[in-house]
Amino acid sequence: QVQLVESGGGLVQPGGSLRLSCAASGRTFSSYTMGWFRQAPGKEREFVAIISWSGGMTYYADSVKGRFTVSRDNAKNTVYLQMNSLKPEDTAVYYCKASQGGRDYWGQGTQVTVDS
User: Fold this and answer.
1) What is the pLDDT of residues 54-102, one digit of tens each?
2) What CA–CA distances, in Å, run from 114 to 39, 63, 73, 79, 101?
3) Checking phi first, is residue 74 left (phi over 0); if not, alpha (psi -120 to 50) or beta?
4) What whole-number distance in Å separates Cα of residue 32 and Cα of residue 30?
5) What order do you get walking across the sheet with 18-24 strand by strand?
6) In 68-110, where does DSSP find H-type helix?
7) Residue 31 — left, alpha, or beta (φ > 0 → left; ψ -120 to 50 → alpha)?
């Protein structure tokens, strides 16, 4: 089992940047595929980005492609989401997810608000 804690959210102006972090417990972090998802008020949770266990493969939602970058540091048991050129429609609670062998683990989420 793995426990996930997101951080780095906050209030930012349109066009600004934030870097989210997701710290994982456990000694097997490097074996998990890690993903970022978000949920805006009144909307379904949606996929944002995913990174393979080695970091060698990444995939993004079209809405964030070219603006967001997912990365991981397996030595630090942490996955990151660098968010640039933020837009008001990026406002949401951002969650990280660890997946392995059909099991998913979620963090508690961190709020990102993009507003002038």
Assistant:
1) 989 999 999 999 999 999 999 999 999 999 999 999 999 999 999 998 8
2) 14, 15, 27, 22, 35
3) alpha
4) 6
5) 4-7, 18-24, 78-83, 68-73
6) none
7) alpha
